[in-house]
Amino acid sequence: MDNVGLILALAGAVSAALFAGIGSAYGVGLAGRAGAGAITENPDLFSKVLILQLLPGTQGIYGLLVAFVTLSQIGLLGGGAAEITAGTGLMYFLSCVPIAVVGMISAIYQGKTSVAAIGVVTKKPDQFGKAMLFPAMVETYAILALLISILAVFSL
């Protein structure tokens, strides 16, 4: 099998988009359910609740970015796949693991934290800024994973 390296690199790109996307879909879904309940009580909260719902969606974007960068680096977006050794393919795969794993887990927890923040905003709309800090703190770890994945992919 002379395509093992390419297959491993492609598996890394797919994993980055897939797992970060799954986490984002779950987190956005959790927050969306809470948001729907909040605006039934006070429709004026829609914009604040929407921002809180969208926060867990960023990890899916980060995973997609790493996937695009990886696909570009291995030549699949440019029209011709590069010849990649199994070792290099494994390195591409491992470079994508941080955003795949941390992206998925942080999006789920950010969704749960967004649900709590929506609860705060529902009871005290003037506390939106403070409430938003809680899910935003979870974002920090997704950004760190994104940086590691991007730096690792570009270093190959």
Features of this protein?
single chain, 156 residues, mainly alpha, 5 helices, 0% strand, elongated
What's the short version?
The protein is mainly α. The protein is built from 5 helices and no strands. The protein has helices at residues 4-41, 46-54, 58-73, 86-123, 128-155.
Give a description of the structure.
It contains five helices and no strands. The chain is an all-alpha fold. Helix 3 runs antiparallel to helix 4.
Number of strands: 0
Output the structural class. mainly alpha
| Low-pLDDT regions | none
* Cα gyration radius (Å): 18 Å
Helix and strand arrangement:
Layout: H1 4-41, H2 46-54, H3 58-73, H4 86-123, H5 128-155
Helix pairs in contact: 1-2, 1-3, 1-4, 2-4, 3-4, 3-5, 4-5
